[in-house]
């Protein structure tokens, strides 16, 4: 079956290899929380397969990256596996042949670099993802790297640039259809982050506008989000509003919002 595979689109090829053995290997990994059976199965099937392309070769590194990411605290090992997978897509032709796969790896690598406080590396990966994504992916699919770039810039205290990327991420997110619960959650989060950028830039009135917009989005979908998520969202926004009120030296009001925030989010399992 594998030997009959013909190279077509990225979607058809990745779907083929995923069904052949990549997905099954990941199921073994997640069931065992260990790589022994997963890698044995992966290697044995790949050894018997013909026409192996770069995608399944890189997927072996992705399998190991997922092990380190989900079942260990070893971010450096995760980063090493992602970098090894990326190295296999070592030509412009390959990167253009597998744009979604390559962009996904860049975003994964950027996320881990961010965790390791390697902001220059994270920025490099996100911008590489942005450049390839702008050429090959839909507006909705491009949201993650605009959002990720914004997060790195915020951590680097470049609030004006971060604000610009958060706004672009929100505009791209609005093109997604259907508007799922996950998308709505990120939309309200982006609005809160836009508000934080304005607050850092000493534009507290604009910050309040976007904090309120975050609440409006959440309220619109409160039935699908559920009471626990709504409490968390309100807890975050109340905390952000308290910061704005502190900036304005309205300390009594800031105290009330801080207490509201604590009462909502100081619970087991809440951030």
Explain what this protein looks like in three dimensions.
The chain has helices spanning 10-32, 36-48, 54-71, 75-88, 92-97, 99-115, 119-136, 143-155, 159-173, 181-200, 204-220, 222-225, 227-247, 251-265. Helix 1 (10-32) packs parallel to helix 3 (54-71), helix 6 packs parallel to helix 8 and helix 7 runs antiparallel to helix 8 (143-155). The protein is elongated and about 70 Å long. The chain contains 14 helices and no strands. The N and C termini lie far apart (48 Å). With 271 residues, the protein is mainly alpha-helical. Helix content is 79%, strand content 0%.
Question: Percent of residues in helical segments?
Answer: over 70%
* Multimeric organization: single chain
Number of helices: 14
Uncertain residue segments? none
Radius of gyration: 22 Å
* Main β-sheet description: none
What is the β-strand count? 0
Q: From N to C, what is the helix and strand string?
A: HHHHHHHHHHHHHH
Q: Which structural class do the helices and strands define?
A: mainly alpha
- Span between N and C termini? 48 Å
In terms of DSSP E residues, the strand content is: under 5%
List its salient traits.
271 residues; elongated
What is the compact description of this entry?
The mean pLDDT is 91.
Fold blueprint:
Layout: H1 10-32, H2 36-48, H3 54-71, H4 75-88, H5 92-97, H6 99-115, H7 119-136, H8 143-155, H9 159-173, H10 181-200, H11 204-220, H12 222-225, H13 227-247, H14 251-265
Helix pairs in contact: 1-2, 1-3, 3-4, 4-6, 6-7, 6-8, 7-8, 8-9, 9-10, 10-11, 10-13, 11-13, 13-14
